[in-house]
Request: fold
Amino acid sequence: MSMDYYFYLRDTRGFSSQSFEAFCASVGYSVRLHPNANLVTDKGFLPACLTDERFTMDGNDRFLTGIDWFFAPHQPELEEKKPSGLRALFRRKAESPVQKQIRNSTVEMSAGCHFIDAFELLIAHLLGAYLIKSCGAVMYDPQSGMYYTDAAAVQETLNGLVKAMLASKEKGTLRVHPFEEWKS
Reply:
C-alpha cells in the first residue's frame, strides 16, 4: 500500500533542492537531500536525512528517509463533447478555481510514500508546503480528496502527523532507519 500526493505547477523557476532545504529550516525541520539530488531533473527514489531531537531513539536523532519522486508535463483531462440545447443547461458543471489552476498547470509532480519508515509522509507534506509557497503549486491528496493551495493548511496537517508520530514513538512502534552516511 502506498499514499501518493500530486503537485501541479505552472513552472519550476526558483525550485531547487537547496531552496527546499532552506524552506524546511525556516519552518523548524532539518532536512538534507542526497548531495547529488536534483528535484527538477531526478526521478525515482529521492533520499533524505531528517534530523530531529524529538524523535531521538537509542541516542540517534538523524534518520534516513525518502519518497518516490516523479514529474512530467501536465496533461489536462480532455473535455467531453459538450451537449447542446436543453441538455447543456442541465449538464453544465461549474469549474472551481482550483480546477482552473490545475488546468493551467504545465508540470505535474508526485511523491509516493510506501511506509518503509515513518518520515515519508512528513517529507511529502514539507514538499507540498514548499511548492505551494515558492511556486504557487496546488497539492492534491487523493486519499482525502483534498486540494491545498495554502501552505499553512498543509503545515496544519503536518503538525497532526508529527503528533501521531510522537505518540507512536512513545508506544515504541515508530518505524525509523538511523542515518549513517550517504551511499552513492
Notes: The mean pLDDT is 88.
